[in-house]
Amino acid sequence: MGFKTVVLAAGKGTRFKSELPKVLHPILGKPMLWYVVKAALEAGSEEVIVVVGHKRELVEEFLRENYPQVKTVYQSRQLGTGHAVAQCRELLKNYSGKVVVLNGDTPLVRPEDIKAVASTPGDMVVLTAKTEDPTGYGRVVRDGNAVLKIVEEKDATPEERLITEINTGIYAFSAEPLFRALEQIDNNNAQGEYYLPDVLKVFQKEGLSVVPVLTSDFESVMGVNNRHQLAAAESVMRDRIVKELQLSGVTVHNPQTVYVEPDVTVEPDVELFGPLYLRGKTVIKKGTVVGPFCDIRDSFIGEGCTVESHCWMSGATLKGGASCGPFSRLREGTVLEGGSRVGSFVETKKAHLKEGAKANHLTYLGDCTVGENTNVGAGTITCNYDGFAKWRTEIGRNVFVGSNTLFIAPVKVGDGAITAAGSVITRDVPDNALAVARSKQVNYPGKAESVREKARKRAEEARGDNPRQNS
Predict the structure, then answer these.
(1) Is 435 known to sit in a ligand binding site?
(2) pLDDT at 465 over 60
(3) Where does 28-110 have alpha helices with state H?
(4) Residue 352 appears among annotated catalytic residues
(5) Which residue in the list 25, 83, 352, 361 is annotated as catalytic?
(6) Domains of the chain, first to last
(7) Cα dist from 211 to 85, 145, 196, whole Å
(8) Nearest-CA neighbor of 330 among 371, 197, 322?
(9) CB 451: neighbour CB atoms within 10 A?
(10) What's the mean per-residue pLDDT of the chain?
């Protein structure tokens, strides 16, 4: 039997002390709400309705961009969880199936727990958990497989406080009795709010069944109410993802320091060394080794590549057998073909290095193509920006670029050409030509001593007549 889901996401989250709505605070690069909606959809929810409130426009914008199929309802005043669910009455007025209620600040919730609570027979199903330290949680008082009451800690008797089974705040209801019950609860409490758990008494009064479902994973129902708890939840999610990688055939060294966002794909037989950040939609194919202290985002790394330590890349593509690092920076649009390499302190942007091309150190390659088997010497710069527009440099195959060559774009260098070290290339270089663009060296025998003497005199004049006064 199918079910629909209501996600409560209207609260401000005052303990976050933030202008950002609570449910949009990120865990591994994704807002908490992203994980909750994803879990509901993966569990098979027919429809997801998100209750929005504080800064609704930000939450609605996020949902439009990430989950356009999700519907929203607006809770103009935050008057409690029961009041929030009641706002969904119109969208669910003709629905007679199960309604699962989730909280937008429980990013660790698992699809299997949602399935369990949705599929368990009962008019009201309460997802519960057991913990050695239940302090601060509402206790579940049960009689066999029936929930008698949910009692908050401040209202619990000494015997009830010894109960280790707690209420997670996740429920499944039969839709019709749920909305009938919501009309009967009141806000006669210290907060003046309408609480969703209060429908339990109404269900019992009407002779409806209230049953518990116990989760085996207490961490999965962890609520996030401040930034300390946010960090704890992110740690759990990170461990989950790293464990999945390890079980799928990825070797992860120093796993506690490896940060992997949920949209990253890593194939078997990849070796990762922490500390390491893998972000966005990065893909790493089999046989690749990624060294420590790298930050890789939205990049594609092909089979058998080597990424040495301290590399940063964003929007880059490394094809099979390419390598980079240590200390390389590969910016958006960089493409390294098979067997090509960039080395220490090389920065690239919209640079296409074809098969076997190499720039091993101290180089900037921007808006350029480097042909097959071309060697780029240290200190080379493609001067691609004239203050108004970017221009391209085209370097052919089998070119030898001498150290400290500057290419003043737009410029083309033909196949097999050589540029002399220290040259400033302002015009196209034909195939197999030697380009020398530097002033002629002139040697003056014995001139060095007279230059030093002039320098000494200038220094003495700068200090004053007495050369000793500043000694």
Answers:
(1) no
(2) no
(3) 32-42, 56-66, 81-86
(4) no
(5) 361
(6) 3-221 (3.90.550.10), 244-435 (2.160.10.10)
(7) 20, 6, 16
(8) 322
(9) 10
(10) 95
